[in-house]
Amino acid sequence: MSIVKFNVLTVPEGAGEKLEERFANRAGLVEGQPGFEEFQLLRPVEGTDRYLVYTRWRDEESFRAWLESQAFRRGHAQAAADRGDAPAGHGHGAPAGHGHGDAPAGHGHEHGGPAATDSEVWGFEVVQRVTADRPDAD
Ligand code: HEM
Question: Does the global pTM surpass 0.85?
């Protein structure tokens, strides 16, 4: 069965649009990663104000390989620059850390500066999965 990894992003009030824009311009590299199955960016509506980055993978190894890949680095190059380090640079395949909440305030540049001030990874095993029995519903 597949696994699901959420990256849970804390986004200051008013910065959601900027975050969404950055994801709209995302590198699109994750699609080509072996074992990648699905990605969704989820905007909070009720119960939380954190954004969820939903990813589904064939197995834990596939996810870890992506974390250590150039594709991950390149897909997060701007986020890393904003935070002053490289997302994969923490080694051990450990998810990129938890953002630091120390993003430099208001140093705007062409990408508009940091959008998320903190992040945390949640991991799950898919136990059951049901989708509508229509080709366009998934
Ligand atoms: C320090 C932690 C992380 C932060 C702050 C962060 C933030 C971001 C941001 C802002 C983007 C949009 C592209 C950009 O602006 O560079 C992005 C892309 C993405 N993030 Fe993260 N991210 C982190 C770690 C992770 C982790 C651990 C996962 C997986 C659970 C993940 C999943 C993704 C995916 C799938 C994309 C799209 C990449 C592509 O198009 O190839 N991120 N992330």
Answer: no
